[in-house]
Specification:
Layout (H helix, E strand, L loop, with lengths): L2 E9 L4 H11 L4 E4 L3 E7 L5 H7 L10 E9 L4 H8 L3 E2 L4 E4 L11 E4 L12 H12 L6 E5 L5 H8 L4 E6 L2 H13 L5 E5 L10 E7 L2 H14 E13 L3 H10 L2 E9 L2 E8 L1
Length: 279
């Protein structure tokens, strides 16, 4: 499958670049790279009206508040890995974890090392939401045995959970190439407790977990809350990210309806993460 690369320059960059990422994710764009002047966004090639998509994706705000230009091009699938290798840099999470690729030098890596082969999927650690979710896991006194990683992407969170003590991790993603990437990365890191499965939220029906990780987007998270509540054991923990600070109250209110109590809010560069406990 070929991919569409969308280069967007937007001034002022904050907060519009973050808003654009969130909206494009809901429209089907699958991966993002921050640039000095905006973002790069990637989607599988399809019939997309780029100009109208962009204009409709800034939440209907007036163009007087920002200036935006963009261009698009098609990237053949066989060139994707070379593109990632040129841009992919190691990510450190508070000196306690390093996310890197096989072609990086591990000599100076700090803390727990998670090695991933970068592919067209979320969760490389470069995005603020993956960073916060990783920190939240690292901050736990102990990681429980049974974990769900919903929307696993590259499998970074599933791998980190096993390295921190989890024994059975179900990693689900709606994209089959993400599932294959997760399997490859789990093997690369010597993990044996991760089961990566292609599918959606219905796959957790009848299953129970002590900890659920979900780094997706606000609308999907809200639609999944009832199933998360049904599958999470009493006293279990739900970690959510993939949304902005401005979305926190809306998500907390929706979670309260499903018998979750807020424990902590994490923030990083206008993005947020929630840690909730099942009543």
């Amino acid at each position: 499958m070929d991919y569409l690369e969308l280069t967007v320059n937007i001034q002022p960059r904050a907060p519009w670049a973050e808003i654009l990422v969130s909206q494009l994710a809901e429209l089907g764009f699958e991966s993002f790279v921050d640039t000095e002047n905006g973002i790069l966004a990637y989607a599988q090639v399809a019939e997309i009206d780029i100009e109208n998509t962009i204009k409709e994706s800034i939440l209907g705000h007036s163009g007087d508040e920002f200036q935006l230009d963009f261009e698009s091009k098609i990237i053949p699938q066989q060139n994707w890995n070379a593109l990632w290798e040129a841009d992919f840099q190691p990510v450190e999470v508070e000196d306690r974890m390093t996310i890197l690729a096989p072609f990086h030098d591990k000599t100076n890596a700090k803390g727990i090392i998670v090695e991933i082969q970068p592919q067209m999927s979320f969760g490389t650690g470069h995005h603020q939401t993956t960073w916060m979710m990783s920190k939240a896991l690292l901050d736990l006194p102990t990681v429980p045995k049974n974990v769900l990683d919903m929307g696993t992407g590259t499998g970074v969170l599933a791998i980190l959970a096993e390295k921190l003590g989890a024994e059975n991790i179900l990693a689900i993603d709606i994209e089959d190439w993400s599932v294959e990437n997760t399997k490859e990365n789990a093997t690369r890191n010597g993990m044996s407790g991760i089961t990566a499965v292609h599918g959606d939220i219905d796959l957790i029906e009848g299953k129970t977990f002590d900890l659920i990780l979900a780094n997706i987007n606000k609308n999907i998270l809200k639609s999944h809350l009832h199933q998360y509540s049904a599958s999470l054991l009493s006293g279990g923990m739900l970690m959510l990210s993939g949304f902005f600070e401005t979305d926190v109250n809306e998500l907390v209110e929706a979670a309260n309806v499903e018998n979750f109590t807020l424990q902590k809010v994490l923030n990083k560069e206008t993005w947020a993460a929630l840690i909730l406990i099942k009543d």
